[in-house]
Amino acid sequence: MTDRSSEFFDYMHKRHDIYLARERGEPKPWTDDRILRDYRFCNVYRELDTVTIWIRKHIREPYADHPNLWFMLAIARRINHPPTLEYLMAQKFSQPWPYKSYSPESMRIALDVLTETGAQVYTGAYMITAETGPEHTGQTKSRTTAYSNLGRLWDARKEVEPLLHGTLEGAFNAILGRGFAWGPFMTYEVVTDLRHTRYLRGASDIDSWANAGPGAIRGLNRLTGLPLTAKSSPGMDRAAMEQLLVMSRLKRYWPNNARYPRLEMRDIEHSLCEFDKYERVRLGQGAPRSKYPGAA
Q1: Dihedrals φ, ψ of 34, to 5°?
Q2: Which bin fits 106, alpha (ψ -120 to 50), beta or left (φ > 0)?
Q3: Structure confidence by residue, pLDDT tens digits, 229-247
Q4: Which residue ranges make up each domain of the chain?
Q5: H and E: helices and strands count for the chain
Q6: What are the residue ranges in the chain where pLDDT is below 50?
Q7: Which helix (H) or strand (E) holds 86?
Q8: Is the dihedral of CA 276, 295, 124, 262 positive or negative?
């Protein structure tokens, strides 16, 4: 790793300082960094993000021992929009929450009814699309969600659920690539939620495995001086992230105290993606989709 590692941790420190200042009720601006002030960046710790807090309070904690908690979390991350999840929880159709069984058609109808009201149904944080191709003509997002994403996963529950109790990587592979129409990004989101439940709380690879997405890989390339488009193997990406995690245990890089808790591999991967966004703005290479009203 190059000396740019200190810049990476400096970014993380400044971003978390903003969170702490806001939590203390201090007035804007919470930073003198123009980029962090004017653009929206995720928290260093995913557990502090608004939707994750909602999912923890309304799904993970109240249904902690429910046999289908894993499937509820899959629904939550596919939609990732609390008002829609509240709507689904309040429905009294054939599959009341919590799910003892699952009907794709009931889910499709519920989502279509909500769509027809003009309400936002899905998250704005990432793209939710319908399946495409000649065999999917006329497919809608609600049908893709109800049948392809969730229906296939539910049908394979006896095969999938036992594989969610070992390691993060094992749980990731149990969902990804099995014909459930789940890509690596969405699968990783669900696995990260499972890490904070009975399924994976004790996983042995919390500090040694993370799925590096395109943004995180670009962030690593920036730190190592490689071209932004350079590709490497998943093993090399993980080794580089693990090196950053080891560095984070040193107080000169990360405080490791009550206000700045110990980082995990997910925090490193997540922050590499955000660091890439930060650098794009700083270097005039582009800007995040969302601005933030952080000025006083």
Answers
A1: -60, -40
A2: alpha
A3: 998 888 999 999 999 999 9
A4: 5-47+207-282, 66-194
A5: 14, 0
A6: 94, 133-135, 137
A7: helix 82-90
A8: positive
- Distances in Å between the Cα of 163 and the Cα atoms of 69, 160, 176, 265, 278 are 14, 5, 12, 21, 37
Q: What is the DSSP letter of 165?
A: G
CB 39 within 8 A of CB 18: no
Cβ-Cβ contacts under 8 Å for 231 (sequence gap 6 or more): 217
Q: What burial class does residue 159 get, using C-beta atoms within 10 Å of its C-beta: 0-12 exposed, 13-18 middle, 19+ buried?
A: exposed
Rounded to whole angstroms, the Cα distance separating 168 from 202 reads 10
For residue 102, the Cα-to-chain-centroid distance in whole angstroms is: 24
State the pLDDT at residue 198: 98
pLDDT of residue 134: 46
Which pair of tokens denotes residue 289?
């989709």
